Amino acid sequence: MSERVNILGVHVDAVTMTEAVAAVRSYMDERAGVMIATANAEMIMRATHDPELCDILNAAALVVADGAGTVWAARHLGHRMPERVAGYDLAQELLRAAPSEGRRIYFFGSAPGVAEKAKAKAEKLYPGIEIVGVRDGYFKPEDNAAIIEEIKAAKPDLLLVALGVPKQEKWIAAHLTELGVPVAIGVGGTLDVMAGVMKRAPRWMQKAKLEWLFRGMLQPKRAGRLLALPKFVWKVHASRK
Fold it and tell me: Residue 67's CB: how many other CB atoms inside 10 A?
């Protein structure tokens, strides 16, 4: 078992990308029926005033450090955190390995048409991949039963849910048992990036730990949410004993 680091009440696993991929692989092999979360600073800050989200994250089988802020926080608090395990990159590693491992994948979320485009991109990037279903994230509560039946019938090994935080985590937690999928991961904007409707920060900005700034520039609506970052830094620093 990996070390779990407590960052403002959220327990994050100190794992490398290789270790995270291996863990997901074993969960799929065991048909474990687990949720995996990708925790960045914004999600952790939200969890500080959303007890339901905090409980869901702490019950997840694996919580990876998706963001430079999470890695910084763990180290600032005196813990080992080997590297950032971005949700987008984790998804790509799993998709890349899927054809040779015979994994079945389902894409659920994003705006109408996006999951289809992400599917086409995955099929181009990873020849032989089996995307057994797609469904957009625009639905009413009364649609839940039909969506769950659709996913169950497709029998995916891996369900990628792109409904945004905290909706995706709460949806997975509420329906994981009845879905019967071995692994479900909340992947935020991953399908949007794959579909080409949202850009990812250039490599130099990722390396400079400025991906959050790029997202803020690209999506001015996020500007208010970016204020969570300085608050996060202050809270982490204040929590250090």
Answer: 25
